[in-house]
Design goal:
Layout (H helix, E strand, L loop, with lengths): L1 H26 L54 E2 L2 E2 L5 E6 L5 E5 L5 E4 L5 E3 L10 E4 L5 E5 L5 E5 L4 E5 L3 E6 L6 E6 L6 E6 L7 E5 L7 E3 L7 E5 L9 E8 L8 E4 L1 E7 L5 E7 L7 E7 L10 E2 L9 E4 L3 E7 L18 E7 L5 E7 L5 E6 L5 E6 L4 E5 L2
Parallel strand pairs: 1-26
Antiparallel strand pairs: 2-29, 3-4, 4-5, 5-6, 7-8, 8-9, 9-10, 11-12, 12-13, 13-14, 15-16, 16-17, 17-18, 19-20, 20-21, 21-22, 23-24, 24-25, 25-26, 27-28, 28-29
Length: 403
């Protein structure tokens, strides 16, 4: 009996609950809408656009494979980023030299001829003569004469204007022209150390005169005629001051008693400023972790050795070029291991970036990242400052536009 009474009471309760719920839905106040988290509240007229089929994170839909990262845009003019490199030659060259007039001369290793790249980019031969296996070619400042050295020790002076050549002594080596091109300087290496000198002569070898004894120190002397006509060579034969500090002497034409220069580091590599008032050089020391470090110093007359400044740039002086007295452009390896200043070949495959150094303020800015990961040998700038020329490790000549 009690079981039947319980079922009756449960039925009555359920009936009342259902009735109350229906009453609230039909006659009660409307409840405020509840917006699920993240759902859009204001739906535009016409409704939302249908959603595309979803894809789980990390899953690639067939036919929609992920694209590779977009490569940086290549700029035709240097602006600090990746910059277009224009090949000027398609052959291996040697001894590329920019004349004072902005004409670029070079030796073609393949056909043994000398060529000139004109300002408009055209190439013309300097002579129809063929010069096989030239080891070194040193051009006069005007670019119209050169001294050619051969592996067997033969040397000739060649005038490309009139196609005339003169044979120079075989025991002469390491030539350079005077700033005016009317004289040359060289090392005269006799069999006897007492018969070894630095000599100056006319370009054809006439009127030669010795100016400095070399003895057994020929390998420590670098022939390099300064633009102001004061210095013809530097010698790393001075005092040794510890492991990586030594004295460099300056040699003039008339036994002048020039001041010396104290260099921090080994593998001294110099380059004159355009007017000869300063000397840029690189050297490797413990201070730079034995990487090549750039320095600049006054190097004229009584000012030799004054105002020496470390530029905090790790590269070799031959990879730099002056633009006037106050600006320097340098090709700087992106990475250099410890000791690269003592073994330059370590960097033969390391790409270079090109930076600009303000020699007054010391400010350094990246000018260009040459496209194609270029390893630069020598850097040159045109007299108008519009273009940079460089040779790479393959011997090709290339151009970067600065403006």
């Amino acid at each position: 009996m009690f079981k039947r009474l319980g079922l009756i009471l449960l039925f009555i309760a359920v009936t009342i609950g259902i009735g109350y719920t229906l009453y609230r839905v039909i006659f009660g106040p409307a409840a405020p809408p509840v917006t699920p988290p993240g759902e859009i509240v204001n739906v535009p007229p016409g409704g939302l656009q249908p959603a595309a089929p979803g894809t789980a994170p990390g899953v690639t839909v067939p036919g929609e494979e992920a694209l590779p990262p977009t490569a940086p845009a290549v700029s035709p003019i240097a602006n600090g980023g990746v910059t277009q490199v224009k090949p000027l030659t398609r052959v291996q060259t040697k001894n590329a030299t920019l004349s004072a007039a902005g004409q670029l001369n070079y030796y073609n290793r393949a056909d043994g001829k000398f060529y000139r790249i004109m300002e408009d980019g055209t190439i013309k031969s300097l002579s129809e003569s063929v010069f096989h296996n030239v080891d070194e070619a040193t051009f006069a400042p005007n670019g119209n004469q050169a001294i050619l050295e051969y592996p067997d020790g033969s040397n000739i002076f060649y005038d490309f204007t009139n196609n005339q050549q003169v044979t120079l002594p075989r025991h002469w080596e390491d030539f350079d022209f005077s700033p005016q091109g009317n004289n040359i300087v060289a090392k005269s290496i006799g069999l006897d150390p007492e018969n070894r000198f630095i000599v100056i002569s006319n370009p054809d070898g006439s009127s030669a005169r010795p100016i400095q004894e070399l003895g057994n120190n020929a390998n420590e002397v670098m022939v390099d005629w300064s633009p102001n006509n004061q210095i013809v060579a530097t010698a790393t034969t001075g005092r040794k001051m510890g492991l990586d500090r030594h004295e460099v002497y300056f040699i003039g034409q008339y036994h002048e008693n020039f001041r010396s220069l104290i260099v921090e580091g080994l593998n001294f590599q110099p380059q004159w400023s355009p007017g000869g008032e300063q000397l840029l050089y690189s050297s490797a020391s413990a201070l730079s972790d034995w990487k090549p470090r750039l320095w600049i110093v006054d190097a004229s007359g009584d000012d030799i050795g004054l105002n020496r400044k470390m530029l905090s740039v790790d590269t070799w002086a031959e990879k730099c070029t002056f633009s006037g007295k106050e600006t320097l452009y340098c090709a700087v390896p992106r990475q250099l291991p410890r000791g690269a200043g003592l073994q330059p070949r370590i960097a033969n495959s390391t790409p270079d970036d090109i930076i600009k150094i303000d020699l007054i303020t010391g400010l350094q800015t990246t000018v260009a990242i040459p496209e194609g990961s270029q390893t630069i040998d020598t850097l040159m700038i045109t007299p108008d400052g519009k273009n940079l020329y460089f040779t790479n490790k393959s011997g090709m000549i290339n151009e970067i536009k600065l403006r």
